[in-house]
Design a protein that fits this description.
mainly alpha, 6 helices, globular
């Protein structure tokens, strides 16, 4: 259960466009981008509290990582799952990320902006997978 004092609880009250699961998914997709896809440029830690270098992922890179992670996790249902959480465009990813930045749960560089997430890809095209059902040939009885 979510700790009532966690900053995301207040965020969900202020901005009800996205479900809690959408925020969790974006966090997981960021880790997927950095650790699995090895996206982003290494940046040195900002404080001694951090454990080694971090990878900075751009808005466009994160959108692509989210797309791949969604397809990996949900397959043909990826677009529908994201829509259930309130996510219908790549701009929604940006809204989620910048909400998390605002409450101190994510960081950005001075070059990052919310518009980096706009129109990165079309959801209809990006989540459509080539799906074909083929009949076995009549010779294979």
């Amino acid at each position: 259960m979510l700790d009532p004092s966690h900053p995301i609880v207040e965020l969900l009250k202020e901005d009800s466009r996205y479900e809690f699961d959408a925020y969790v998914f974006v966090f997981e997709a960021l880790s997927y981008a950095q650790d699995v896809l090895e996206m982003g440029d290494e940046i040195p830690p900002e404080s001694s509290e951090e454990s080694g270098p971090q990878r900075h992922v751009t808005g466009q890179e994160l959108c692509e990582a989210i797309r791949q992670f969604a397809l990996d996790q949900y397959g043909y249902m990826a677009k529908d799952v994201l829509a259930k959480w309130g996510i219908k465009t790549t701009g929604d990813f940006g809204e989620i990320v910048f909400n998390l930045i605002r409450i101190g749960q994510m960081r950005k560089t001075p070059q990052d902006c919310r518009e980096d997430f706009d129109d990165v890809f079309d959801f209809e095209t990006a989540f459509r997978q080539e799906f074909k059902i083929t009949r076995p040939s009549d010779d294979e009885d």
